[in-house]
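thought: fold this chain, then report.
action: predict
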Amino acid sequence: MRLLYVLYLASWSLKTTISASNISQALR
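observation:
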């Protein structure tokens, strides 16, 4: 159960980082 939570957290942070980089590239 703990591993599942960590995996979910990692995927969420990765998705946030990708979307943030996309936004910064669009602003440039």
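thought: worth noting. The two ends are 41 Å apart (CA to CA).
final: tokens above.
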